Structure formats: structure tokens, C-alpha cells
Amino acid sequence: ATAPPSGDACPIPHDVWSLLREWFGRKSGSNRGRFLSRKIEVAERRLGIPYGSLVSPESSRFLVGVDMDSGPAVGFPRERVVRFAEKHGPVEAVRCDPGANFFICSFSAQIHCEAAVHDLRANPRIFDRLCMGLFARDAHGGASASDARTTSTDDEDAISAARLVPGLRIYLDAVSADEERKILEEIDRGGDSLWKKLRFRRVCHYGFPFNYQTRRADESPCIAFPPVISELCDRFLAEKKISEKVDQLTVNDYSPGNFVSAEMGEGKGIVENYSSLSISVFLSFFLRRILLAM
Question: What is the SS3 assignment for 127?
């Protein structure tokens, strides 16, 4: 049978089910079908729409692209989604929420949407992540028509996010391209012996090592900060980008598709002030305050 097994979080159209089996094989296709169902359910909750109401089993003029890669959602670059959609016909609206696992496009006619869905299914990694193209029932609060072409930038999204989180400060282009190059060269100079292999990434520590068993920074100093990193920290302190001298640094190196699970920092240099510098990669961070009942 080509129909998905019963009990999935939401129904999957038969053509999508067949495509999943073609991509991943019979057994894997079944697992991916359930995985896709969960992804759609997450999108529905984010959109605030009724359970099972996002995907249309029939063709429509609304396209929803769903991120099928594992790990945290990183979002879809809005400008790239608009360029992709406009290749196939007039676009009325585009919705790309920062950090969401989906995007929605509203086309002026169903035939344009069908062409876009066909293209996305034929080229599922067109956005550098495995993406499933589906028909949606309607635009579900998509952006206005003018927003589809007047695209918001990542900078604007970052600044807006900072206003929503008390105490969060975001500095765009905090380091120059030359500084970035020097930092990467200095870290690479340490060789393989500097790194500790974890499940989804490798790490190295300067100043004080972080103990992943106790979830605290150890008190005994380890490798001293390289001059280029010390100079950078001093500059950030002088520019008031940070409020105190940095004494512990963890470098996380991620391979494509890998991620870090939810982090709960505690102990030396982790709770009161925490700074993160992203270089040589685009990352999305999700910051949440967890309130524990006493």
C-alpha cells in the first residue's frame, strides 16, 4: 500500500508519501512520513491554526515548504525564497518567520504554484537543506503583497529580536573579515590535540575548561587565550559590548547538519553574563527562560 500508516500526526497526501518512499526507501520513507507529520504539526502551532489544517491534499495556489533536516530549525532566507517563487510566476505574498521550519508562498494562480512545488520536489536541497514542497489550504497569515518584494533583512530580524528579550544585545558585524580570518587561523594552529569530540560537534576551551559531566566550568586554568582573542575581548570591553573581562572561552565547531541541544549554563562565567560570537557560519539561537516551581 502507498498510503501512510494510520496514527500519523496529520494526513500526508499520497503523492508526497510516494515521494518520501522514493527518496528514502520503503522503511525509511515510513519513518520520514511520521517525521514530516511532526514538522507540519509544529508549523501549525506556530501559525496558530487548527490541527491538521495546513496541508491541502489537492493542488492550490499556496505553497508551504517544510524543512526536513534534523536538528533545530534555522529558518529560510527570505530573499532566496522570494527569488525562487518569482521564477515560477507572480507572487502575492511570502511568509518566512525567523527560525521557523517552514515558509509559505501565495501565488496569483494555481498553475504557478504547481510549477514551484514540482521544482522544489525535483530539487529538494535548493535552499541547502532538505525541503519538502506541499500545497497549503490558504496563506495562513502570509505577508502582504508588498512585503513579498520589499524583503526584510537578517539585520532587521536580529534587531527586532533583541528588543523582545530583556538584557539581550546583538551587534552585527562585530568583527572584521580580517579579524575573523586571524581567529580561525589561531584556532586551527592548535591542532587536533586541542579538541574534544562530543556527540554533535567538537569543542576546545581556553581560560577555564567546561566540564560536561558537572555542567560547570572547572576552577583550574587550562590553555591561555591566544593574543588575537585577548585583543578582541579587550576591544569588546572598551566598546562596552561586554560588561566584564572574559576569563573562559568555549569554541564549538559544527559540521553541516549538526547542532547543539538545549543548553542550560551554570557556574563560573556562564549565568550572569554570556556572550557568543558566530564566525564562518550562520547560526540561529533560541533563548528561553525556564521557570522552575519551588
Answer: coil
One-letter amino acid at 36 equals: L
Question: Cell 553574563, residue?
Answer: 273
Binning the chain into helix, strand and coil, the percentages to the nearest 5 are: 35, 15, 55
Q: Which three cell numbers stand for residue 210?
A: 567546561
Cell 497569515, residue? 141
Residue pLDDT, tens place only, 79-135: 899 999 999 999 988 888 777 888 999 999 999 999 999 999 999 999 888 899 999
Q: CA–CA separation, 62 vs 56, rounded Å?
A: 9
Q: What is the dihedral of CA 113, 108, 85, 104, to 10 degrees?
A: -80
Q: What is the pLDDT of residues 82-98, one digit of tens each?
A: 999 999 999 988 888 77
Residue 88 is given by DSSP the state S
Contact 265, 274 (CB under 8 A): yes
C-alpha cell of residue 126: 535548493
Beta bridge partners of 102: 66
Provide the H-helix boundaries in the chain.
Answer: 14-24, 26-47, 78-86, 110-122, 145-149, 154-164, 177-189, 227-238
Tell me if 147 sits within 8 A of 94, measured CB to CB.
yes
Helices 14-24, 26-47: axis angle to 10 degrees equals 130
Residues 6+ apart with CB under 8 A from 260: 200, 201, 252, 254
SS3 for 126? coil
Cα-based torsion angle of the residue sequence 114, 119, 121, 124 in order, rounded to the nearest 10 degrees? -140
DSSP string, 200-212: S-EEEEESS-EET
Angle between helices 227-238 and 177-189 (to 10 degrees): 140
Q: How confident is the model at residue 256 (pLDDT cuts 50, 70, 90)?
A: low
Inter-residue contact 147 to 105 (CB < 8 Å): no
